[in-house]
Structures are given as C-alpha cells and as structure tokens.
Specification:
- The complex is a heterodimer.
- Chain A is of the alpha/beta class.
- Chain A has helices at about 55-65, 85-95, 115-120, 135-145, 160-170, 190-205, 220-225, 240-245, 250-260, 265-270, 300-305, and strands at about 5-20, 30-40, 45-50, 70-75, 80, 95-100, 180, 210-215, 225-230, 235-240, 310-315, 320.
- Chain B folds into two domains: about 10-230, P-loop containing nucleotide triphosphate hydrolases (Rossmann fold, 3-Layer(aba) Sandwich), CATH 3.40.50.300; about 260-345, no CATH class.
- Helix content of chain B is about 35%, strand content about 20%.
- The relative contact order of chain B is 0.14.
- The chains are: A alpha/beta, B alpha/beta.
- Chains A and B meet through helix 5, helix 6, helix 7, helix 8 and helix 9 of A and helix 7, helix 8, helix 9, helix 10 and helix 11 of B.
Chain lengths: ~325, ~350
C-alpha cells in the first residue's frame, strides 16, 4: 500500500466495568470489548471490519472516532496523538472524522427538516456564515442524489435509502477526511444497498475520502474494502487485502464465517461443504484462555488453551492469529 | 407449480388473494391478486423488498388480518377450510394446530415474564385441553431437545433474556412445531441473526421438516437464503406476484425484469467485483397510488421497448416456454429467455 497512513490504532484496549452502580459499589467484572487492536487506515482507502455481533466492531469504531476514550493504547490521526484530547481540541479533530450510522430513522431527528439536519455540522466550522448554509446544503443534497427542492421536508417523508443519503450528506458536510460507517446498508433492501454502496464509492473517488466500513455482511465488505480485518471477541484474528482474506483464508474462524454466508446460487449451495459453528460467541466478560476462538474451533488442540496466538504472517502473505492456520 | 411434479398433498391453497387497508390518505393495496399453493414436505420461498406484501400475505394466511378493518378478497384454503369465511373458533382451532408461524424478532415473539418451558407447554395445552402439568413439561422438554438447546433439563426453567438470539429463535421454532402443524410460515426467521447462527437455524428447519414433513413458507429478502433453503420461489413486488419458478430455474433463467434486477444487485463472495454494482433505479411505488398497468414499469428499463402496453395493461401470469417458469411480464417468451442474468451482471 503506497499511500500514507491517515488514522492509526496502536494496541487499543477498551474495557467497560460492569456492576458498578453508585459511587461506593465495587465493579464486579469487565467487558473486554476491544482487547489490543492495532491497525492502519490509508488515505483514500477503505478498511472493512467484519465479525459477529458482540465482537467489538462498533466499540472499535467509536474509539477510532474518539467518541470513546480507550482504556489503553493510542489513536493517531495524521501522526498526531488524539488518544486523550478533549474540549475545543477534540471538536476541531472531529471535523475531520464523521460517522454514518446503521439506522437512518434513529439517527435523524424527526422534528428537524432535512435542511436543518444537514446544516447542523456546518455551524461548528470556523468562519461559519449562516447566510451561505442553504446553498451549501442544496449542493450537498445534489451530491448524494437527493432533490435539493426537498430542503424543507422531514425525515419521515423519505424512503429508507433516501434517509441514508441524508445521513451521508450530513457526514460529508464538513469536508471530513475520514468517514466511519457502522453497518450503513444492513437496514436497507438489496437493490437500495447497491445504490448506497455506489454512492459511497463515488464520494470516495471524488473527495479522496478514507472509510472505515463496518459490516457483518462479508460480501458487502468484499465489494468495497481495500483492507479487511476480521474480528472475534475484541481481537483481530486475520487482516489483509480482500484477495488475501477471501482467497487465501488462513484462520478457521474466517473460514467458518465465509462458509456460513448463503450463496445466491442453488447449484453451488447444494454441493458445497459447510462448516457450521456450534454454539455462540462466548461472553467478553470472561473470554476463554489462550486462543479465544478455541471453544468453537474445529482444529483446537491443547496448545490453543495455553498460548494466545499472535497476529503474525505465518506464510500466507498476511497476518493471522492462529497456531494451526490452513 | 414448477416443471417438476411434487409429491405430497396440497396443504395450503391461496387463490386471487387481495388485501387492502383503508387509510385517511386512500386505500393501501398491500396484496393484489396473489395465488399459490404449498404441499407437504415442500418449502416455498417468498422474496421481495420491504413493502412488497410478503408479511401481509403471511399474516392473512394465519388469520391475523382483521377483516373488519381491511378489505380481504379471494380465498385461503388450509386443509380444505377457507380461512377467510370460517368463524373465529374454527380459525383458532387451526392456528397453532394446523398452521404455525415463526417471526423475525425472537425477543418480541416471546413473553419475558414466563419461562421458556411454560411458553412451549402453553402452546401445547391450548390444543390439548385435558393435558396435565407433567405432560406439558415433558412435551416442552422433548421440544427443547429437538431444536438443539443444550442442557434442556436446566434451561427449561429459564427466561427468554437468559438465552442468546439464536437460542431464542430455536425456542420460537419449538413453540411453532409443538403441535406438529402441517404448515409452518417463517417470516424472515434469520434476518436478526448473525450468519453463523443463520446457518444453524436454516439447517435446523431443514432437519425438522424432514422429521415432521410439514410444508414451509419461508419469507425473506435475502436471495442467498432462498438459494440455500427453498424448493420453489415466488417473487413479489408492490403486492403482486411477478414470477414463480423452482429455485434452480429461477436462478438459471430469471424470467422477469424485476427478478433479473434483484439478482444483479447481489454481490458475490467468490470473486471481487469492484466497480459499480448494478442497481434498480428509483424505489418501490407507493401502495396508495400504484402506477397504471405493470407496477414495475417506472423502474423497468425494458418497458419503453413495448410502447404503451406496459402502462395500459396489468400483465397476467403465464408460462414462459421453454424455461417453464411463470412470469407476469408483457415481453414475449423469446425476450424473457434472453434475460439471463449473465449477459446482465457484467
């Protein structure tokens, strides 16, 4: 990857105490949502993060956005350490990172018109003139494929796909460098998903945006990402280019995840061998010793319970955290 | 309903079903003249986008659409009884006994105040009024075993919140199957679940179908799930049925422009497809003011080639030769045969 690193996470850990209610009560445990994640996001490229519910995808995204402060480790934006900044300084950094959410209904205020929604972030820009807001909002609406004349309409008057376009217009309003999209298409119908994915790709090409794209749908990530990170219980188990991760799959979890995806072809579906994982993801309060995937892994051996496998290149051309990769 | 002849008796026959809901803004025509049938041991998939009428069709079959507030036309025959004309006690006798339903969200389908054993037992007791408490518990235990809940003796007394999403869906399936119904309707049963759990649930439904021999209607928007889990497919759009075919025929030769569009929008896991995805332009029409003629016409790139035909006449279902599928489109057979997804997805 030739382009430069724009956002970097180094050994990021985010733990949430549980059971602590009130000042004097003791915490009874810790949810290890993100437990030592390092990754780089390159300018103009897309990092896709995949994994099951509860694997820490969304927490990681919120730490990268600095909506949450990490418990340990650091986050760097263009070389600048933003791990513990706050106040004015944080607000300034935020104009470079924006978020697109999963649920376009919940993330838009029903009592605000589209014009108000999209223009809100503009108010926090330096040298802001209220007079130019309307023109800018209509320009943004045009960019994301909305009719600028619908400026005064409310979110409920739009369809799901159009609402997601409003969320995207709001995110790009302050000319950010990075957009973190947390499951941006999973609430939409397939034909609409394709429209939104195409829009995101067009905006990336036009403005040189970098994306962190979180999804549980592996085919969406394959389509859009330059780099794919597979997460399991707060850790990255495999990371690399889509060709590597999907082509030379090394981690048994990635394998199982991919074989679980239904194939839209009945002839292939009937003949392929499927690895069905038993059980559910273990609790992140008490993750298994050693390799966290060992309790569901078809290849687990004694070593896996003792030693935690490190994320290393084990001869596949991309890093894998497994003692016995394929 | 496809080129193959299916064994097994017809369990459900839906004929010319229309469901409309009067609202202050006008009549919402949710389902518009849909006909199909399912036989025992067969799985029929109903696919379509949101608002295509899939779920209204399902709840009307279950007798859950209030006929006082909705205009329901046509007929729905379950085991020879027309649900739409039967009185409430008769329908109640069929519901749970002859036909059962699995919903999308297992958390809201279960009652948080009762243990899962209680809820499975209750579904059994409704249709077996004389049964004892002990019988109920034994039946519930047996069902928990069948749907693959580990350690059922301990878990029978737990509450829904103590189970994971996949386990909850297994319990909902246990409730649905406790009376061994001849028809099971599953409305997006795996949409709320992770792919790995989705694979488990689909396998479970398949194995239970083999054991119980029920007919299954699987409602989904996911063409991948359709390819994996069903025998025949009906594609719905804006309340109408657009295409009916066996699953292999549908994927080999989609013979309706809408089906073809849906398949073009699906991304593949096997090969990288960077570059623009195909999309169907626009969004589904409002069910209050459907377009004249074919409801897919405003989004169809082939409608213009037929002049005014598509806007003047609603296309009726007809068999497309030599493909053998049923399609509601004005294009002639040759044109529909040429609609293979291959020359289109590229």
């Amino acid at each position: 990857m030739s382009s430069e690193v724009i956002l970097e996470a180094i050994d990021v850990i985010k733990h949430f105490p549980t059971g602590a209610r009130g000042l004097l009560q003791r915490t009874t445990g810790t949810v290890k949502a993100v437990d030592g994640v390092s990754l780089q996001i390159y300018t103009g490229q897309t990092l896709g993060i995949v994994g099951e519910s509860g694997c820490g995808k969304s927490t990681l995204a919120r730490v990268l956005m600095r909506l949450l402060e990490p418990s340990a480790g650091s986050v760097k934006l263009q070389g600048e350490d933003i791990t513990h900044i706050h106040g004015q300084h944080l607000r300034k950094v935020r104009s470079q990172m924006q978020m697109v959410f999963q649920d376009p209904i919940a993330s838009l205020n029903p009592r605000h018109s589209v014009g108000e929604i999209i223009s809100t972030p503009l108010k926090f820009l330096e040298g802001h003139h209220a007079g130019s807001d309307k023109a800018r909002v209509q320009e943004l609406m045009n960019l994301v494929g909305l009719n600028p004349e619908h400026y005064n309409r409310y979110p409920h008057e739009f369809s799901g796909g159009q609402r997601q376009r409003i969320g995207i217009a709001r995110a790009i309003a302050v000319n950010p460098k990075i957009i973190v999209a947390d499951e941006p298409v999973s609430a939409l119908d397939v034909s609409i998903q394709a429209q939104i994915l195409n829009l995101l790709e067009k905006l990336q090409a036009d403005f040189g945006l970098s994306y962190v794209f979180i999804a549980h749908d592996l085919s969406v990530v394959r389509h859009i990402a330059d780099q794919v990170a597979v997460m399991y219980l707060g850790k990255i188990v495999e990371i690399g280019s889509p060709e590597d991760v999907y082509g030379i799959t090394a981690h048994p979890y990635t394998k199982a995840l991919m074989s679980a995806v239904p194939v839209a072809n009945p002839r292939i579906a009937a003949n392929r061998h499927r690895i069905v994982l038993t059980g559910d993801v273990p609790s992140p309060v008490n993750p298994p010793s050693g390799c966290r995937f060992r309790t569901r892994c078809p290849k687990a051996q004694e070593l896996c319970a003792q030693d935690e496998p490190l994320l290393l290149d084990r001869g596949h051309g991309h890093p894998v955290a497994c003692h016995f990769p394929d | 309903m496809s080129d193959e002849v299916r064994k097994g008796e017809v369990v459900l026959e839906v004929e010319d079903l229309s469901v409309g809901f009067p609202t202050p803004d006008g009549l919402v025509q949710a389902v518009n003249g849909v006909s199909f049938s399912v036989s025992s041991g067969q799985t029929l998939g109903i696919v379509g986008e949101s608002g295509s009428g899939k779920s209204v069709t399902a709840s009307t079959i279950m007798g859950l659409t209030n006929q006082k507030s909705a205009n329901v036309l046509g007929s729905i025959k379950v085991g020879g009884i027309d649900i739409l004309r039967a009185d409430e006690p008769t329908v109640r006798g069929l519901r749970g006994q002859e036909m059962a339903m699995v919903f999308q969200d297992p958390m809201s389908a279960l009652n948080p105040y009762y243990t899962v054993g209680n809820q499975i037992g209750e579904a059994y007791a409704v249709h077996h009024p004389g049964c004892t408490k002990k019988e109920r518990r034994e039946i519930a235990l047996g069902m928990l075993n069948k749907v693959g809940i580990p350690n059922p003796i301990q878990r029978i007394d737990e509450y829904p919140h103590q189970f994971s999403g996949g386990m909850r869906q297994r319990i909902v399936i246990a409730i649905a199957l406790v009376n061994n119904p001849r028809l099971l309707i599953a409305d997006e049963p795996t949409t709320a679940l992770d792919v790995t759990v989705q694979a488990q649930i689909l396998e479970l439904m398949k194995s239970l179908q083999q054991e119980f021999g029920s007919a299954i209607i699987l409602i989904t928007h996911d063409l991948g799930v359709v390819a994996e889990a069903v025998d025949d497919v009906m594609v719905m759009y804006a309340g109408r049925s657009m295409e009916k075919a066996s699953v292999t025929t549908l994927f080999d030769n989609p013979s309706h422009p809408y089906t073809r569009g849906l398949m073009g929008a699906v991304r593949s896991l096997d090969h990288s497809s960077r570059g623009s995805l195909h999309t169907i332009p626009g969004s589904p029409p409002s069910l209050i003011s459907l377009p004249s003629g074919c409801s897919f016409r405003p989004r169809c790139d082939l409608a213009a080639s037929l002049g005014d035909t598509c806007s003047l006449k609603v296309p009726s279902m007809r068999r497309v030769e030599p493909i053998g599928s049923l399609s509601a489109c004005h294009l002639d057979d040759q044109q529909l045969v040429n609609l293979t997804k291959k020359n289109f997805a590229s």
